[in-house]
Predict the 3D structure of the following.
Amino acid sequence: MSAPAAILRVSALGKRYADTVAVDDVSFTVGRNEIVGLLGPNGAGKTTTINMILGLLAPGAGSIHIDGVDLSRERERALARTNFAAVYAPLPGNLTVEQNLRCFGLLYEVPDLGARIEALLEQFDLRRFRRVRCGLLSSGEQTRASLAKALLNAPRLLLLDEPTASLDPATAQELRRTIRAIATQGDGGILWTSHNMLEVEAVCDRVLLLSHGRILLQGDPRTLPGAHGADTLEALFIRVAREPLSFAGGTA
Amino acid sequence: MSPRRVAALVLRQYYLLRGSPTRVVPLFAWAAIDIVLWGFIARYLDHATSGGPDFLFTLLGAVLLWDFFIRIMHGMTTAFLEDVWSRNFLNLFATPLAVPEYVAGLMLTSILTSLVGLAVMLILATTVFGLSFFAWGALFVPFVAVLFLFGIALGIFASAMVLRLGPASEWLVWPIPALLSPFAAVFYPLATLPAWMQWVAHALPPSYVFEGMRAIVAGHAVPLGTLGIAFALAALQIVLAYAFFVVVFRATVRSGLLARYSAESAA
């Protein structure tokens, strides 16, 4: 059986909380070796969308296929192909870096776990922190530990929710390089959220601009601003955030 | 069911226990204090009422078995609460971990931690007060097994309750055994209770255990029929508690509570 072209296929996804529409008819894909930026102002529905893709929140409508596996029907198989790192989901602070990686490695049933942990400790410069409890790490070190966890199972779909938010510029640049390499060398795809538009332009192959739970625009982050009369992606982002109705017509 | 995923949950608890004496001491400290306190009370009563009932068995034996049940139940809920305290639900349930594996992990952790308490209680009761459950031989096993099953059922139920009501509802968990103990007839015959309390007691497997234990001490035959009822009740209660946990878990995924657990409400 040939592998599906899209690593992530989200179709007509919707979620309501009482009277509030958090996500409304959202459809998009993430392709193999592609980094897709999920952008939008606070409350746009980014984290709700990510939570649904992670199986932490049941969609009210629509479907999610990860590497061809329907999340609603085969949750375990779909999530075995996925992993994530988010600033709001640090690793348990009362376990050391190595202990956390070992526990999550077992949860993801990672083969040859010891060697995989060593490789990730090396890759994220965490060897000297292996016996340090995660709660004692600086925020940047915690982010690196979370990223090491996120790569434990070499996921086909990697979800990164503001992964560089607490990193210094040098570390953030190194991380972007690492993630870029993972996307191009592996056979997976990455969904990335960030409020740093320069970073998004540098990293993402494609962006989706969300507002009020809907995708208003999508395209190449380097050409999209020009196509909509904006000088930069940041300027376009601000317009989408302030005047979402003027973009509500389509997703060109 | 993946043994590796179940092992991950047990390993996590082992790491926590290994690195934290404050987690290890409660595994046996309260149970040991209970044994010492009730051991002396029983010794005094035996001395004061020589020729009367065997208080060592009826009191100290009851305390030992009841504390074992509490260790089991608290072992389950404490393992669950570790995930609440460390805000680990997002990381945990974004993995392929399935609910049966999660519950199995809690259960296995509880077995291991409660065995520590049971061992300490048995050693103290035997060496200090001369109470030997080992003299009962295989008779001891079904009594402990019923309490074990009921402890698991109640642990699953209490975890589901905290999952549904939020982190602040943790305080509701700890007094549950104390609330049940008057109905379970731990220290007195079931007939002592008023009729309505006896009806409640009949739904609680421990009441059969303690009645049975008193019957044996009084020289009667092992009440196999009532032990069978207790087993069946406890097994049914595990099934019901597990079903309740699954329903609550699905509801938290549907409402968004799981993803925003610290908010205590999805609305």
In short: Chain A has a mean pLDDT of 88. Chain A touches chain B through 39 residues (CB under 8 Å).
